[in-house]
Write a structure and sequence with these properties.
The protein is of the alpha+beta class and about 200 residues long. The protein has a single domain (about 15-195), classed as Roll (Pnp Oxidase, Chain A), CATH 2.30.110. Helices cover about 25% and strands about 35% of the residues. The chain contains six helices and eight strands, in the order H-H-E-H-E-E-E-E-H-E-E-H-H-E. Strands 1, 2, 3, 4, 5, 6, 7 and 8 form an eight-stranded antiparallel beta sheet that branches. The chain is globular. It starts with 13 loop residues before the first helix and ends with a strand.
């Protein structure tokens, strides 16, 4: 079920536990971890082309911030469902907004485990043979838990993060708009970056 509380408990990844402890003890000094665990390594599936893996968190953040669209992966009664969404990113969470009714919300109420994907197309690479053709790209895949934001002040914060992805603020959000808009916060537990440079 969708829950307004962050992932907690003994099963929470270590970086999330440390982040939560920091928030409780000294919220002003709390910053995101420098590195989230790599989903490929964490799940025992090391990247085949390790020469293309991006492990630097600043590079991963830069890719996410340069993307206009997030592809949100959900599981609908055992069936995969991917939908493009406008999003915001604060270095630890991905925010997106939605109607309070619809397929995304219905799915998340049953299963709030999600995958998010971001990619930048850096151009086509051509060659003399068909198999020499490929695409230069940079991409990030993250895994996490989605939660429906209930508090109006937190909803405004999430919407401000979303708007900051596309334009400079400040922005204001009226009470009626905030009330009728669903704001979903995805807490990232792991991220994996990959690139295929042109050169």
């Amino acid at each position: 079920m969708l829950d307004s509380a962050p992932l907690v408990g003994p099963s929470a990844p270590r970086c999330i536990k440390e982040y939560q402890i920091c928030q409780i003890n000294d919220p002003a000094a709390c910053q995101r971890p420098a590195v989230l665990p790599s989903s490929a390594q964490e799940r025992g599936f090391p990247m085949r082309r390790q020469d293309r893996e991006i492990t630097d968190r600043d590079q991963i953040d830069a890719i996410i911030r340069a993307c206009p669209v997030c592809h949100l992966g959900l599981v609908d009664e055992g069936q995969p469902y991917v939908v493009p969404v406008s999003f915001g990113y604060d270095g630890r969470h991905v925010f997106f907004h939605s109607s309070t009714l619809g397929r995304k919300i219905d799915i998340l109420q049953r299963n709030n485990r999600v995958c998010v994907e971001f990619e930048i197309n850096d151009g086509l690479i051509t060659g003399p043979q068909a198999c020499d053709w490929t695409t230069a790209y940079r991409s990030v895949i993250g895994v996490g838990t989605a939660e429906l934001v209930a508090d109006p002040a937190e909803k405004r914060e999430g919407l401000a993060v979303l708007m900051a992805q596309y334009a400079d603020g400040p922005f204001t959000f009226g009470d009626q708009m905030v009330q009728r808009t669903a704001v979903v916060r995805v807490t990232l537990e792991s991220v994996t970056g990959k690139q295929r440079p042109k050169a």
